[in-house]
Amino acid sequence: MDLSSRHKWPALSVACLIATGIAAGQYLPFRFSPPACILLLALPVAIIPALLRMRRRSTDLAASFVAMLICALLGVVLVQQRAGGEDREIFAAEGRTVVVIGQVVQPPDPGGGKIRLQIRSRWLLRDSLTTPFSATLLVVIIPPKTSAPVSAFTYGMTLALRGTLERPRDSRNPGEFSPRQYYTANGIEGLMTVRAPDQVLVLQSVGGWWFLREVVFPLRRSILAGIDATVAGEEGELLKGLLIGERGGMSPLTRRAFMDSGVAHILAVSGSNVAVVAGALVFVLGVCRFPRRFVVLPVALGLLLYMWLTGSQPPVVRATIMAMTVLAGRMFRMRAHPLNSSGIAALVMFALEPRQLFDIGFQLSFGAVLSIIVLYPRLNAPISRLSHRLWYGRVAVAMLRLAAISVAATVGTLPLTALSFGRVSLIGIAANMIIVPVSGVCVVLGMVTASAAPLCTAVAAAYGTMNEILLTATLRVAEWCAAVPFATVDAMRFRPVYILPFYAFLFVLCSAGRPGQFRHALVAFFLALNATVFAPEGRAYQRERGILRVSVVDVGQGDAVLLECPAGETILVDAGPGPREQGRETPLVPFLKRRGVERIDLLVLTHAHDDHAGALPDVFSSFDVRRIIWNGSIPGTPSYAPLRSMLLSHRNQVHVRAGSLIRDISLMRLYILAPPAVAAGGSGSPADNLNRSSVVMKVVFADASLLLTGDAEENEEIPLVDSYADLLRADILKVGHHGGKAGTSDSFLNAVQPSWAVLSVGRHNTFGHPSDAVLHRLALHDIAVARTDRDGAVIFETDGNSWSRVLWQ
């Protein structure tokens, strides 16, 4: 395929220009009003009469530039007009109890013990006022702990829901996944939490589009029920993901295995399924002697039905539009260029929701298909020259072509995978060669099982048993590949700017043998390389000598504080809670890796509660921990035995007490102010007394100071005030026990006199942290407050004289 023949794929060129405009419009610091948008698009059009009076060559060049400008401006207008007044309404009502009236637009998902609904709101009732409110909301209904029956909610119902509204939160820590970007890319403007099902009133039981209500969603429920009846356990959950994209019941361990083995893309329904559905429909219609010239319409309708069954996920939407483009071309006896088909698919999806550009599913889907279209012919050319007259030669050639497809898709999406998931699979190419064909067979068998279930249970069970064997093999292969040493490499420090030289280098390779195009590719590559070299280091990756950087990491309901010292040492104070489920990852370790941490020179454990020590096993397995200081107090209960063994077996662990001074950190002094000697060292201390023996540490760098208090409460604060008085003074206070009401007394604040107070607290925690009384006391003392539940990671820097806050979002 000749990449220079742009006239063959104008739709892709237009889509790329509009995508550029969408990206620019999303991140512009200002928004254009509707009249300004009209004027913006009208200005380039006004230049056209002047172009007509120019010389032909100049006219062509200028016309091309104007067309490019119009496409880019159209992208800006599209994305900016999507961000309307609903965001302002949600912001105004955030955190307050409101009533929303709206219609269910997606079938409920009962995963995780909660009921999740998507509704399209119509009215908002707040402060006795009813206002029109048009927004798509994701509603989470928390069922009661009792076994009382919960009303069934279905598509099309009109509901009145009483609960709290909020905007999706942004990244919790620098470089982390952004839920807000994910939700907005999928058309969800806000989140609503309903604390009990009795806060939901059904106003109308029937509504919505009849086809979805009577055909699509009942058929989806029937398919899921058929899978549950024929394929059990994790295999059944995998089949739901392969067949219709329902993966809520899959365990985190399975997801992690598929990610580490480089085949996570098959957990979501793949665009290749569309080809399977189209092939099956063509085969059935052929068997039924359906006239070939009339095949296009029923196949197109079948693909649309399948797209709705899968919830219109980006890969399926993209593949459906491309397939329908090919079918339309055949109807009119025209050959559709695959790059042009991709461009048409992107343009249609941008028209429906331009913010899909920022969805990783959209990016990976188009990245993979474009990579296969562009790179596979070049990889296949030498394979096609191999001799394959004998059967084993043909098998070898087929395997090499399968590997070439895997290589093309993997290479083309490599930077997207590194940026989104923070790791790159080295074994993915081999794993894809096995798992992708097998999963394709599983999809076919799943379709046959779903079709046979209403007609003959025995036939459906037989096909289901065959499928279960293949699904089990798929799971085992993914687990074996993930367990291979060095199956993945860490890519936490991969920066977005690295994407430019990567794709520019691919452009150079694809241009080999075309001198003119090769020169342009080399220029593009060197420009991208220069942009990467001279681009300013992002705050998420930057480390400076002579600067103390303090990061209160957002680990949810817990504590973890990273100190990056002026001379380069790294101190970690607590590690936050461990993962709730095996296979999940805590946010601390990725944060440390993105910061370039390779070792932890000093680990300070304030006390042994899980919200401070739960992630220590992950820290120990990921980093070289040189030294540990802790209070030596840990309960004797069996649940604390692994932590006790890990701490006591460390080669350099020290029990500290009040009055200790840590001297071996260059340019800094670390004062241990608590616990006193009588409180430290009790290995049999009950768990509820651990807060009272928290390590309290003051950090001093030149004239700048920081006080870290663990979970200290008033009964530990009083001795501190009595013993140290002026020594407690600090510029920044990490508030004790997450702002609980039993601490942060007036006398303590009078002694510390901080300018900033930082609260490390989980969003929507069940402990009522931070206490309103503590927030009131901080306000009375005129102390600025930063909170991880609202601000994400709270980061400060100092040169030893004054502190500055790093606003990274």
Give the structure's gist in a few sentences.
Helices cover 47% and strands 16% of the residues.
Outline the fold blueprint.
Layout: H1 10-27, H2 34-46, H3 48-52, H4 56-82, H5 85-93, E1 97-109, E2 115-126, E3 129-132, E4 136-141, E5 158-166, H6 179-185, E6 190-194, E7 200-204, H7 210-230, H8 233-244, H9 252-260, H10 272-287, H11 296-309, H12 314-331, H13 338-352, H14 360-384, H15 391-421, E8 423-425, H16 428-452, H17 457-483, E9 488-490, H18 499-510, H19 515-534, E10 548-552, E11 561-564, E12 570-573, H20 588-594, E13 599-600, E14 602-605, H21 610-613, H22 616-622, E15 624-625, E16 628-630, H23 641-648, E17 653-655, E18 661-662, E19 669-674, E20 696-701, E21 704-708, H24 714-724, E22 732-734, H25 746-752, E23 756-759, H26 772-780, E24 784-787, H27 788-791, E25 794-798, E26 803-806
Textual characterization of the structure:
This protein is of the alpha/beta class and 809 residues long. Helices cover 47% and strands 16% of the residues. Among the domains are: 77 residues; 124 residues, Beta Barrel (OB fold (Dihydrolipoamide Acetyltransferase, E2P)), CATH 2.40.50.140; 39 residues, no CATH class; 259 residues, Metallo-beta-lactamase, Chain A (4-Layer Sandwich), CATH 3.60.15.10. It starts with 9 loop residues before the first helix and ends with a strand. The chain is globular and about 95 Å long. The strands form five sheets. It has an eight-stranded mixed beta sheet with strand order 17-16-14-12-11-10-25-26, with no helix packed on it. The chain contains 27 helices and 26 strands.
